[in-house]
Prior knowledge:
Its EC number is 1.-.-.-. By secondary structure, the protein is an alpha+beta fold.
Amino acid sequence: MTSDIKLLDYLKVRRSTPALQLAEPGPSKTEIEEILRLAVRVPDHGKLAPWRFVVYRGEERVRMGETALRIALEKNPELDLQQQEAERTRFTRAPVVIAVISTAKPHFKIPEWEQVMSAGAVCLNLIFAANASGFAANWLTEWLAFDSAFLTEIEVGAEEKVAGFIHIGSTTFPPVERPRPELADVVTWVGDV
């Protein structure tokens, strides 16, 4: 995807690339910083920045996969070799994985739900920014985002939640369209139309 594509044209064809189809090269540190600078340009009532990022690159992704495998085996020692490999490679499917951590908390003026939605907006903006920078991306959570043992390992606080793990890399796979909802199924018109 080129960075000079018009926004409307991009939105007409935007889709996530499956994590298993992501490969090197991934964005450099400088490119990641620019992607993050773009990602934080989201609605954020009260300017709270109710999210933070953890960027996993290089060998740290391997360590994270080994941690996921260890915890998965503690929960289910019967995992076959294929399932173990899936756990081991969770963070090496893409050259870069960015955890978006929602830090939403009660506030005297800003509803917590608005803060959570801002974290979701950051996840989508990360994908948009990665695509605009010439990379493919995917937003995943999977069981890891909800597992207390894994969250403790990656130092996610008890009051925090993982909004998503954004996988970023390159791909040679052509984008494949998937069914989208029919507007008639998801839109209610009220008033004159």
